[in-house]
Amino acid sequence: MKKPIALLALLLGASLLASAADAKKLLVVTVTKGFRHSSIGTAEKVLGKLAGDEKAGFTVDYARTDDELASKMSASALKQYDGFIFANTTGILPLPDKQAFLNEVKNGKAFIGMHSASDTFHGPSGVDPYIEMLGGEFATHHAQAGVECLVQDGRHPAAKGLGEAYCIEQEEIYLLKNYNADGNVHELLVLDKHPNNKKKLGHFPIAWCKEYGKGKVFYTSLGHREDVWENQRYQRHILGGIRWALGLEPGDATPQAKPLSPIAPK
Ligand SMILES: [Zn+2]
């Protein structure tokens, strides 16, 4: 090999190594202890595909079983990750050290939750510290419905490119409780009508971001159906949210949540 070519190859190799080394490392958790969504396989594939794009700036590892949770989320193992995605988790997850996990986020890591991430760690009463970190808790849902999610901050990476509204033909829409418990929620997508009774006007949050100590949290209640996960707009929504939470893209997180409307359908 001639010298200039060898040098070029060396530089190229070094820059590839550098970009791989710079990529943020996310742990995707898909363990369930309650309802198990059939979309979990699709969710894992979509997140892998998004991370597979070199420009995404992050890689993903998975915790799919109790054993993987035990080994990848111990107090010391947590430290190797820059953030955590709970993709359609449910129930009381057997985290080896839940407080250490919450502390990691509070000390500056990313947390991203999709759909039933808010149906995880239901406290029997009061607000679980995980729910306080997340910003809201699943209360109930009714029949799947078509909705028009109104964009509240079109400059935020998780809402950029969605226009004024993100319309979904059919999805299971969550109604929430214990919303904005620490007062830090910055709303990104909301409904101004009850999802199952469009005559009933109100305030029904769908997606938000917030700060949790030095950490950044992004949650979207969308993601029940396979075809929602496969939709380009949904993928843009979550990719923006992931990149924001990892600090790869700037976006406002000024608290500005409105109170929830009553969840009764009629
Ligand atoms: Zn669901």
Which helices and strands appear, and what pairs or packs with what?
Layout lengths: L2 H20 L1 E6 L10 H13 L5 E6 L2 H7 L10 E5 L10 H9 L3 E5 L14 H6 L2 E5 L3 E7 L13 E7 L2 E4 L7 E10 L2 E16 L2 E6 L5 H5 L1 H14 L21
Parallel strand pairs: 1-2, 1-3, 3-4, 4-11
Antiparallel strand pairs: 5-8, 6-7, 6-9, 9-10, 10-11
Bound molecules: zinc ion.
Zinc ion binds next to loops.
Strand order of the largest sheet: 2-1-3-4-11-10-9-6-7
- Cofactors, ions and other ligands in the entry: zinc ion
The run of helices and strands is HEHEHEHEHEEEEEEEHH
Distance between the termini: 76 Å
Shape: globular
* Helix content range: 25-40%
- Biggest sheet layout: 9 strands, mixed
Strand content: 25-35%
The count of helical stretches stands at 7
Low-confidence parts: none
Radius of gyration: 19 Å
Structural class: alpha/beta
Query: Could you tell me the number of beta strands?
Result: 11
Notable traits:
9-stranded mixed beta sheet, 7 helices, 266 residues, alpha/beta, binds zinc ion
Give a short synopsis of this structure.
The chain is an alpha/beta fold and 266 residues long. Helix content is 28%, strand content 29%.
Give structural notes.
By secondary structure, the chain is of the alpha/beta class. 28% of the residues lie in helices and 29% in strands. It has seven helices and eleven strands. The strands form two sheets. The chain has a nine-stranded mixed β-sheet. A two-stranded antiparallel sheet has the order 5-8. Helix 2 links the parallel strand 1 and strand 2. It is globular. The N and C termini lie far apart (76 Å). Zinc ion binds next to loops.
